[in-house]
Protein 1
Amino acid sequence: AQTVTQSQPEMSVQEAETVTLSCTYDTSESDYYLFWYKQPPSRQMILVIRQEAYKQQNATENRFSVNFQKAAKSFSLKISDSQLGDAAMYFCAYSKKETSGSRLTFGEGTQLTVNP
Amino acid sequence: ETGVTQSPTHLIKTRGQQVTLRCSSQSGHNTVSWYQQALGQGPQFIFQYYREEENGRGNFPPRFSGLQFPNYSSELNVNALELDDSALYLCASSSRQGFYSGNTIYFGEGSWLTVV
C-alpha cells in the first residue's frame, strides 16, 4: 500500500521569505503523480502543484516549486516570497497513474503560518 | 470556484441514524470520489464512481455506500452512524481521460457531519 508522510505538523515563515515543506512517500509503482494541495479555513482543497513521476524536471507554478527526488521518494514544496494568503494547511498527496486516477492518498498535513 | 458543489454544508445527526450527502460534479466530469477528513487529519479515500458504478473503495465498511447518477451527480450514504463518523466529507470530481492527460481533480467545500 502506498503511504505519504509529512513530518512537519506546523511551520512558520516571515512574509516575503522562503519556506520548504517536506514530504516522503512509499510506493512500488514506477509511474505515478504527486501533488501538493492547499486547504485554507474554507476547507476547500486547492491544487497547488503537480508532478508526474516520469518527468525528471521539477514542476514550478509561479512562487511554488518542488524538489522531486524519485530515488529517495521525497517530494518537498518550496514557497518563495511568502504571502499572508499562503497561510493554510498543506497536504502532500499521491496517486497511481492508472484506472483509479482520482484516488488520492494524502499525508497528515503541515499547518503553515505566515507572519507579517 | 471549482464547479463542485456539496450539500448540506453542516448537519448534526444522532448515533444510529442514517445520512445522505450530495455532490454536484463539474460539468463534463465523469468520475467522482468521496473522502472523509477527520479533524486534524488528512482526507481518507472512501470510494470512487465512474459512469454510475463503484470503481475502487478504501478501507471503509459497507454501511458507507454511494450512488452516481446519469448527470454525474453523486450521493454518499452512511447508515448506522457512529460517533467516529463525525468528519468533513469531501467530494472530488475529475475526467477519467482528462486525468491521464494531467487535468485537475476538483474538490467541493465539503459537508461537515457531527454525530452526537
Protein 2
Amino acid sequence: EPEVTQTPSHQVTQMGQEVILRCVPISNHLYFYWYRQILGQKVEFLVSFYNNEISEKSEIFDDQFSVERPDGSNFTLKIRSTKLEDSAMYFCASSEATGIIGELFFGEGSRLTVL
Amino acid sequence: KQEVTQIPAALSVPEGENLVLNCSFTDSAIYNLQWFRQDPGKGLTSLLLIQSSQREQTSGRLNASLDKSSGRSTLYIAASQPGDSATYLCAVSNYGGSQGNLIFGKGTKLSVKP
C-alpha cells in the first residue's frame, strides 16, 4: 500500500543550527503538508503546498521555516535557526485531492530534539 | 475560530466491549471530518473520512457518524480488541480554508484490556 515516508526518524541538534526534514509523499498526490505535534499537545498545521507554491501557512510558520519540492519526489521542511521550542514531532502528509473528498495521509513523523 | 474537543480524554475498557468516542467542533462550516489512530511515538493512520454531506461511514468494526448542524461526530468501535489500544484523533477541514488545514482535537487515549 502506498505510504508517505519521512527521514530522519529522529534528529538531535544544537540550538541555532539548520535542520532539514525530508518527506516522500504518495506518488500520485498533488497536495503536500507539514504538521507538528509538541509532546502532549494537539497536532498543529504548519503549511500546505500545491503546484510548487505555498497555499496556506499558519502563524507558527514564520520566516525561520521554508518548504521546497526540489525534485519530483521529495518535499522538505527547513528550519533555518532552530530554537528550543521547535522540539516536536514533525509530520508530513499528502492528499490526492482537496475539499470535500480530500483525505490526508500522514507519514510516521520526524522527531526533532533541540538542545 | 474552529475548536475541536474530544471526550473522554482517556478510556479503559475490557476486551469485547462496544465503545463510543466523541468529537465536537464549534464551527459547522466544514468540508469533512477525519478520524485517525495514533500509536505511541508513531504517525497518524487515517481510519475514516466523512464528507460534510454524509451522515456516516463504516470500515470493518468502525462506524463514524457526523451531525454537522450540532457540531458532533462519534466513532463507534464494535467488539473492541487489545490491538485497538491507541490514541484516536478527530480533525475537521474548515470550509473556505486551504482544505488541507486540518484542525485536530487532543485525542482520546483508548486502552483495551485482555
Protein 3
Amino acid sequence: KNEVEQSPQNLTAQEGEFITINCSYSVGISALHWLQQHPGGGIVSLFMLSSGKKKHGRLIATINIQEKHSSLHITASHPRDSAVYICAVTPWGNQFYFGTGTSLTVIP
Amino acid sequence: EPEVTQTPSHQVTQMGQEVILRCVPISNHLYFYWYRQILGQKVEFLVSFYNNEISEKSEIFDDQFSVERPDGSNFTLKIRSTKLEDSAMYFCASSLTGYGYTFGSGTRLTVV
C-alpha cells in the first residue's frame, strides 16, 4: 500500500522551463515535506508545509489539505536543479511515509 | 550553517557481523531519526528518538536494530547481525521541534 504517490516518476525539461511535480497522499497528516536528493545520495529538506503555500527562491510548494494534494513548482529551471524530488508526509506522530521520488533532469 | 554529520560515509561488512552507524545531530536538536534507502527504492522510515527513548519505529526496525544516544552528542544505529538485505544508504536526521528536519549525507552500508 502506498500512502504517498508522486507524479511524474521521471521528468526531463529544457533549461528555463516551469516544472511541476505532484504529490497525493491518503492519510491524515500533520505536515508534508518536499526533499531533494542529489545524485550523490545526500538529502536536503526543501519545505515543510501544513497549509497554503511557501516560496524559497525559484521553488514554490503548495498544499491542499482537503484534496490531500501538494505540488512543487520550479520556475526558470536550471541544470543544477537536476535531482530526485521526494514528497514525504508525517501523520500525527513521528512516523514518515515517503513517495518514490520524481527524477528531474534539466537539459541546458 | 549547522550540519548533521554521519560517519563513516561507506562501510563494508561481512554478513552476520555487527555494525554501528554514527550520527552527530545538530547540537540543540531534540528529535532524532534514522531512515534507510535500498538502492533503487524509496526512502523508508526506521525510527524516531526523543527524550532518550524511541518514540516511533517502523516494521523494519526489528530486534536486530537498536539506537542509542550514548554521550549526549552522538546518535547511533546498531545492526546486530547484518544480512545481505541490510545493504542500503542509511540517513540520520535531527530536528529542534519535530517539524523541519536536517538530514545527514548518509552512510552507504554494503553487506557482503
Protein 4
Amino acid sequence: KAGVTQTPRYLIKTRGQQVTLSCSPISGHRSVSWYQQTPGQGLQFLFEYFSETQRNKGNFPGRFSGRQFSNSRSEMNVSTLELGDSALYLCASSLGAGANVLTFGAGSRLTVL
Amino acid sequence: EDQVTQSPEALRLQEGESSSLNCSYTVSGLRGLFWYRQDPGKGPEFLFTLYSAGEEKEKERLKATLTKKESFLHITAPKPEDSATYLCAVRGGGADGLTFGKGTHLIIQP
C-alpha cells in the first residue's frame, strides 16, 4: 500500500516568489491536512481538507492557501514568499475528517533565499 | 488555546537504560493525545492514541500513559534503533487540527 507522496521533496525559492506543493494521500483516504515544521515552532497546523472543502484552518496569513481535488489529491500554495517561510511542509492523510490517526508524508523542504 | 510542552528537549541514554519522556498539556475538551516518532528526513510516524486518564498502551519497548494533565512515554531497555525525535500532540474540542509539542530528541548509545 503506497504511503503519502509529497512533491517536490526539496526546493529553493527567492523572496517574493510563490510556490505550489503537492500531496497524494493514501488510496481511500479522503482527508488531507497540512503542517509547517520549523526548528523554532515545531509542527504547526495549516489547514485540513475533506471532500474538496477546507474544513479547518490554522493561524497563518492569507498568503498560505490550499485546495483539494476530486481524487483527494491536495496542493498548497504560498505566495509572496518570505525568509520565515523556510520550513518542512508536511502533508498527512486520514480516512475521514477530524480523524485521529494521521499518516504523514516525508515532507517538502522549502528554502527561501 | 491548546498547549503542549515536552521535556526533556534532548535525552541521551545507554542501550538498555530505561527512561520516560514527559508531555504536559492544556486543552479544552481532550479528544485524543497522540505520540509520534520522527526520524531524520522523514515525516512523523504514528505510535499511540490515548483518550482518557488512566489509559495505557504498549508497543514493543514503548508504553504510553495518560493523566488529566500529562502523558508519559516510557522506554524500557531501549536499543539504538529507538533513537528518534518523539512528538506528543493533542486534539482539543475546537476544530484546529493537532497541536504538537516541540519533541524530545532521544539518542540511544550502544
